[in-house]
Every structure is written in structure tokens, then in C-alpha cells.
């Protein structure tokens, strides 16, 4: 493995501490500028060179809505999951054209539908800026001063990079604060929908399968990226494999895992187990129930709420599995043993004397986090104001205050480097449904009152003497933020003009802004910054004890994972590595074709056209997590053999600890995608483009 300069420096003087190989098997979400080359060469006889890495990196795509994708043709065709694309598909749908339910197919370029506010990012380069960031934090600074200094220098780095390259530039925190890398992205905002199957086949088996082992899902969608009203012409894209994934084959996953907590201390894990996860689960359950009741009223309500409801249910599934892992005494015992080993090594090494109390400092910060959790979530994170209108109103209020400040002093989301993306989202033509917003906001205000108490001055000011339901209806009925022109006018307004407009949701945001900002400032300086400094020190010890196969926790930045295509055992039975089309129909028949095991009509009508032996889904041991959805699965030749869309129930503990005994990533097989496109959807032009046989 290639070590960065940072890690080489850390090893000096630490040779007295024993080294062992930390990663288990094919564990790891690896940085593209620090892949495990030696391990791959030793274990699999394959060493990706720089040209291979650059090609895969620039063929990989990040969706701003959350998820991954890849370029799969020289004409800007992008492949991702249907559930990653669902937000964009929903925004293109209406009462007459329900593309989520019925699917979509543009047979010509002119029929491709431009998405409302979708932004795709393609990583162009990575630069280690750790030294520059750390140099801004001077000895003796308080946590608040250190946080301000760090925020200022990262803003300067991002702005300078943006002005120099024209690329979106983000400073990313790695190893819980031990490293800082500058990621530069090519940004695309003209993205058009090309093809999507019916949601019923993309999410076949619904929650019953989703919460165990989804294995018959055609979870794919295709977009096309345009520039200057023409499809982009690409040098880097992934070609299609002739045969697709085979059993025992080495495969790679290039995607953007959202977040893991594998480097967290035991105190932090206990906080997640005992406080954060239960609180979030409670919120997800009430949001899910609320949207289900709304959806059950009529079919149009169901259409409007479907994508948001699916997202909530998917989040609940992930948290269910994560909490189950944290409640596993064996997992927590392993975490305690691993931590104790590092702490013992630190105590025995005089050169690490400054690290001894790092765990205690994190524990103290975590206790403050426990005290702040509810008010911070309800106010600053917006849990008490669940509405698109509130999000817009707060953005307008804060943009008005932040844009006049020096770039380095602004809240992160209002820095120059991110303003274009913020404005695209703010001025989105996304349809907003007032009746749905009333339902969501009413429930959120009820939650706010129950968490902070009805006697809270903030709650009393927010409700203004009304019930949550009446207050929500009053606000939504009076707002004008559904108009993009109004949003643009208020965004450009002076402070006096914005106040004079008396926009209800701007004023609602104003009511809580002082307290919310104070909470954020305290959280960032007394919790985040304290943990960042302590974790940076712990990283030294962890590296010394565990060796150089150390990768950072996921940060929704591009990572490379790898593994083999293999089945697993469950309850004494072998689960094959692959399913096929025949199994899909058998699975439906076993449930008499009743929802959620009903097949779309065209799948019933065209069954006889299919080769039922063609692979449908498959599993592999690659290390993935939420955010990897839509990631391409490729072989040694960087050819597409599949498309990640989920994991089995055993994989949900991967947030905290890797396991390759039963945990598996689940993918759509490349051969299955082609078979469905040809035989079910008759999308010959799309098949030709994917296979590179277009005329």
C-alpha cells in the first residue's frame, strides 16, 4: 500500500509498539489515492495501476440526492438504482403521468426528460491539505477558537480551488480529524431521465424481502448528462462485461458510502445505542405512520408521498439493523477489547503521553452531546419543522445574513464553494403539495412540543397560541414560497426588504434562529472540535497498533471496495450466490401474486420471451453501506458486471464492524439488466448503447 506523507510521519518513533494487520478479509472502503495495492496483489494476483484507478474514478458519479452511479457510455449515459433515482422520477411525475408506478422509456434523445434539480458530481482530483488545515490551529487555542480557525482556513482553501479550477471544491475530514483532503468535482446540472422500470419490479417483494434478503429486484435506472444542450462526450466510462459476474470472481465497487462509525470510541457507540438511535427510530416511526395515513386516503395522496415514504422506511430498516448490532453484546465486547488494546499500548509508550486522556475527553464531549441531543435535533437539524417550505424559509433567512460576511466566517453551507449548488436546490421547480406539507408540519410541531415541552418559550412562540394542526395550516396557507420568482426576489432582498415581506416561513425560521445558531455554535466547538482533536491523537495510536491497512470511516466521498462473488449459509442452509428469472416468477407464485409480490402486467405478458436461466441478482463480500446504492460492480478489466442496490439483513451491522461470514452486498446482474431491457421493455437502442454496438 502507498502511504501518504502524514502516515509516514506518524510512524516515526512508534516502532516499539507491535503491529498487526487490522482489516479482516476483504474489509475496507478505500481512498482512491491510497488503495490496498499490496493486499490485492498478494491475495488476488491483481494490482490496479494508476491508469486503472483514474479511469474508474472518473467513470464514477455521485448523486447530490444521496447515492452513487457511473457513466456507462461515451454519450453521457449514467446508470444508478431506481431507488436513488426515485426522487427525480417523482418530481417529473404528475397525476396524469405516474412514472414511479408505470416506468419511463425515452426511445429517442428528444424524449429524454430534463430533471428538476438533480446535480451529479464526478471526482477529478484529491489533494492532501492536512498540513495547511492543522497549521491554522495554534497551540493554546480554545476549542471555539480552533473551530473558527479551522473553518476559516478550509473556506479559503475551497474558494481558492474553485477560483483556480472552476471545479466544485470540498475539504473533507478523514480519520475523524486526522487528515483533511481537498476533493475537486466536475459538476453536471443538466441531467435527463432516459429509462426507469416500474417501481414494483425495482422493489419487488417490498418490505418483507427488503428487511431480510432482497434478491429479485430490477433496481436500475438510466439518465443522460448534457452540456450546452448536447449529450457530453466522455473519455472515461465503464464498458459492459460480456458475461457478467461469475462465482468466486474478484469484483470491485466504486461508490460513495455515506457514513460509518467503525472508528468511534466505545463511549460514542454507547451514545448511539442508548440515545441517538432510539430517538431517531422514534421520529422515523411517527413520520412513517403519518405518511401512511395520508397515503391511504386516496391514490393521488399515495403518489405524492410515495418517494418520501420509501426513503423513511429505508432509513428505518438501516437503523433497525444498526441498533441490533449495537445491542449485540459480542460486538460491543469486541469494540471494548480493541479499544483497551490501544489504550494499553498508549500507556506503555512515553511518546504517546498526550494521547492517554483522549478517550476521556471524547467521553466528556459525548455527555454534553447527550444533554444537547433533543434541542439540537429539533431546532438546528429541523426535526421540529418538517416541511419543504421551512427549509426554503430558513435558507432565505440565513443566506441573507451569511452572504455579507467574509467567506471564512460563514456557515459551511453558504460558502462561495457551495453557493451554486445551494441556489440550484433553492430555486428548484420541484412540485410542492400544500396539503401534504400541512400534514408533515403539523406532526413535526406536535413532536417539537412533546420534546421541548409546551411551556418552552420557543414552543410557545412557534405555536403562537394555536394547536400544531391550526398553526401548520395557517403557515402553509399564507406562504408564497411555492413561487420560484418569489424565492429569487427574497434571496436578492436586503435585510429590511426581507423583514418587510413578512413571509410566514422566513419569520418562523427567524423565531428560532438565535437559539438554533447558539446550539450549533456550542455543538461545533464543545463537541465536534473536542472530538476532532482527540480522535486525531487516537489515530496515531491506532495506526501504530493496527498497522498500515487502516482506512477512514465513510464520508459520502468516493471509495473503492472489493470482494468475491460468493453465497453464504443461513440456518444451516446454503444460500446460492445468484438468483435467476425463473426464481422471480416462482417467488411471485409462492405468494399467489399478491402485493408486494405482484408482477407488472408486461412481466406477465412477456414471460415466454425470457430466458429464465439468465442471472437476475447476485451477492458478493464487498464492503458497502448506505450511499453505495447505485455503485457499479466491475471486474479486473473495469467492466460492469453488476449494480449494487442493497445488502442482506446481516450486512446492516457493517456501519460498526465488517463481517464477511454472512454479510453480503446485493446487486443486479449485468446479464439480467440486458435480458430485461431486450425482452420485457424492447429497449433495443439502449441495449446497443450499453454493449457498444450502436450504429
From TrEMBL:
Its EC number is 3.4.14.-. The keyword Coiled coil applies. Pfam families: Peptidase_S46 (PF10459). Residues 513-540 form a coiled coil. Catalyzes the removal of dipeptides from the N-terminus of oligopeptides. One of its GO terms (molecular function) is serine-type aminopeptidase activity. This is Dipeptidyl-peptidase. Belongs to the peptidase S46 family. GO terms for biological process: peptide catabolic process; proteolysis. It is an enzyme of class 3 (hydrolase). Keywords: Aminopeptidase, Coiled coil, Hydrolase, Protease, Serine protease, Signal.
